[in-house]
Design a protein that fits this description.
Layout lengths: L1 H6 L6 E2 L5 H12 L3 E3 L2 H11 L6 E4 L1 H12 L13 E7 H12 L12 H7 L1 E3 L2 E7 H16 L4 H10 L8
Antiparallel strand pairs: 1-3, 2-3, 4-6, 5-6
Helix pairs in contact: 5-6, 5-7, 7-8
Length: about 180
């Protein structure tokens, strides 16, 4: 909302009169996170002259705020679906599990057992909800995830593979 109001202003600063009180509180909260810049005394005086009336409060997006919005706009839309397409199921991964999956997808072309078709796109489109990443995956993609955790278990970390078996009932087992 602040970005839209900013665009309509020649100087880029949005005065309090342009915002409802709840919106102003939200802008103040965003300022506390470094996403918004609040006008200092000198800038408010300059804006007052420009506007022809006293400006007691004004805000604009900070460089970080612009970057956050640009990044979000460029990112794939979050999957708001409550249910996957037929044959898909929801898989939720913790940060370290998602990092392992991203590595596997990244080096997938070099692997003798490459990621399942479409897994790379699902990983890129995953969204973090709380402390987990959510992905809707086909059974073949779920098996690829199990393979990732098998690879990690061979390197000494069995926690991910064990949790995946408990939660999703899928483990990679060698044919031997």
């Amino acid at each position: 909302m602040l970005r839209e109001l900013e665009r309509d202003r020649e100087h880029g600063w949005v005065p309090a009169s342009s915002l409802a009180s709840a919106e102003q509180r939200a802008v103040d909260a965003a300022a506390g996170r470094g996403l918004v810049e609040l006008a200092d005394r000198e800038m408010r005086a300059e804006l007052s002259v420009y506007e022809g009336r006293p400006i007691l409060w004004a805000a604009r997006l900070s460089a970080h705020g612009h970057d956050v919005l640009t990044y979000i706009d460029a990112s794939p839309a979050p999957a708001h679906q409550q249910q996957g397409a037929e044959g898909e199921r929801l898989v939720e991964l913790y940060r370290q599990e998602m990092e392992a999956l991203r590595l596997y997808v990244h080096i997938g072309e070099r692997m003798r057992v490459p990621p399942a078709e479409g897994l790379a796109q699902r990983v890129r489109a995953a969204r973090q909800l709380g402390n987990r990443w959510s992905l809707w995956l086909t059974e073949e993609q779920v098996e690829s995830v199990a393979y990732v955790f098998y690879l990690r278990s061979m390197g000494g970390s069995v926690a991910e593979a064990n949790r995946f078996v408990r939660e999703y009932g899928v483990a990679f087992l060698t044919d031997e």
